[in-house]
TrEMBL record, chain A:
Belongs to the eukaryotic ATPase epsilon family. This is Mitochondrial ATP synthase epsilon chain-domain-containing protein. It holds the Pfam family ATP-synt_Eps. GO terms for molecular function: proton-transporting ATP synthase activity, rotational mechanism. The lineage of its organism: Eukaryota, Fungi, Dikarya, Basidiomycota, Agaricomycotina. One of its GO terms (cellular component) is mitochondrial inner membrane. InterPro entries: ATP_synth_F1_esu_mt (IPR006721), ATP_synth_F1_esu_sf_mt (IPR036742). SUPFAM superfamilies: Epsilon subunit of mitochondrial F1F0-ATP synthase. It comes from Rhizopogon vesiculosus. It comes from the Eukaryota. GO terms for biological process: proton motive force-driven mitochondrial ATP synthesis.
TrEMBL record, chain B:
CDD domains: F1-ATPase_gamma (cd12151). It is found in: Mitochondrion inner membrane. GO terms for molecular function: proton-transporting ATP synthase activity, rotational mechanism. The keyword Membrane applies. Residues 1-23 are annotated as: Disordered. The keyword ATP-binding does not apply. This is ATP synthase subunit gamma, mitochondrial. It comes from Rhizopogon vinicolor AM-OR11-026.
């Protein structure tokens, strides 16, 4: 158990997210739909150097549907 | 008789706007007032509907906040039992705000709290402490003032209730980045009541600070597990902060839109009064013209 090699690949948070996704996908249909909403994230991030922002990158590229909808307000 | 002489006196005074025909000038201002009235009515409809939407979202956000707060409380228990020996020299500030505006002073309160914490002389922190911002509004505010300190920024959080997946993603990126820090200070808005909020800071310790603390050294802990705990507790703290900030934002937006609707209603009343007075003045002037014309015949 102490020789888990996943720690070389990703962090504990990612590990927890993967296991959570597995649990959600194994739920009964009605419960699954509710639970899927709790796992949705459309996070974007960008690195900053010296006061200048870099390129904005999606954390989960498969959810990238092109230019995101800009907020109305 | 007195009324007619005073009317004649007023009519003979030169108009401040120049020598346009009297009735034409009143009609022009009447049209302007009518246009303004129409636009303010539309604005009132919009702000009223925004207020309704924000109140329904607030109910949901408050429920999520109450359950999310338990994560934050359970999280902070660890740090109460394992306080770090040395005061943190290098703090990473994570600022939680959102991408949308029209919510009162939410974003500027959090940005100001960050600036105050960095300029604080009681508990000094490095002047080049790294800052990571969640949310575009605070990002633009802080980029203007503390642009050199910005390390990373996140957006697309806050459209709906923040999920733990969002918080875990942010925590992941923080840990994987090359930023050096001894502890993390998460700046967020604390929900005091449905009409007020105040900025607050959650402190989260680094993996190394946890290892050094007396509470931890009393046990035999594997390094791997300590690292996991540090990362997970960071995600927990970020989640609690995000959810509470989101609830504050909805309540602030509801209050701001409520005030805007009230102001719009006041403006509508005032403009309607002005419009009616102008209309009646125009009618009176036309009557005067007709009567003086008729009496001249």
């Amino acid at each position: 158990m102490s020789s888990a090699t996943w720690r070389n690949v990703f962090t504990y948070n990612k590990y927890a997210q993967i296991t959570a996704r597995a649990v959600r996908q194994s739920l009964k249909e009605s419960e699954r739909v509710v639970a899927e909403k709790r796992g949705v994230t459309a996070l974007k991030y960008q690195q900053w150097e010296n006061g200048v922002g870099g390129q904005q990158v999606f954390l989960n590229p498969e959810e990238d549907k092109g230019v995101g909808k800009s907020a109305a307000v | 008789m007195l009324a007619r002489s005073s009317l004649a006196r007023i009519a003979s005074q030169p108009s401040p706007l120049g020598a346009a025909p009297k009735t034409a000038r009143n009609m022009a201002t009447l049209r302007e007032i009518e246009l303004r009235l129409k636009s303010v009515r539309n604005i009132e409809k919009i702000t009223k509907s925004m207020k309704m939407i924000a109140s329904t979202k607030l109910a949901k956000a408050q429920r999520a906040m109450n359950s999310g707060k338990q994560y934050g409380l359970a999280n902070s228990e660890i740090f109460q039992h394992a306080p770090s020996e040395a005061p943190a020299k290098r703090k990473l500030f994570i600022v939680t705000s959102s991408d949308k505006g029209l919510c009162g002073g939410i974003h500027s309160s959090v940005s100001k709290a960050t600036r105050r914490a960095i300029a604080d002389t009681e508990n000094p922190v490095d002047a080049d402490s790294p800052i990571m911002v969640i949310g575009d509004k605070s990002k633009s505010q802080l980029a203007r003032v503390l642009g050199k300190n910005l390390a990373m920024s996140f957006n697309q959080i806050g459209r709906d209730i923040p999920t733990f997946a969002d918080a875990a993603g942010v925590a992941d990126l923080v840990v994987k980045s090359n930023v050096q820090y001894d502890s993390i200070a998460i700046v967020y808005n604390k929900f005091v009541s449905a009409v007020s909020y105040e900025p607050a800071i959650i402190e989260v310790a680094n993996e190394n600070s946890l290892k050094e603390s007396a509470g931890f050294r009393a046990y035999e802990m594997e390094d791997d597990v300590t690292k996991d705990l540090a990362e997970f507790s960071l995600a927990n703290a970020i989640y609690a902060a995000l959810v509470e900030s989101h609830a504050c934002e909805q309540s602030a937006r509801r209050n701001a839109m409520d005030n805007a609707s009230k102001n719009a209603k006041d403006m509508i009343d005032r403009l309607t009064m002005q419009y009616n007075r102008g209309r009646q003045a125009a009618i009176t002037n036309e009557l005067v013209d007709i009567i003086t014309g008729a009496s001249a015949l």
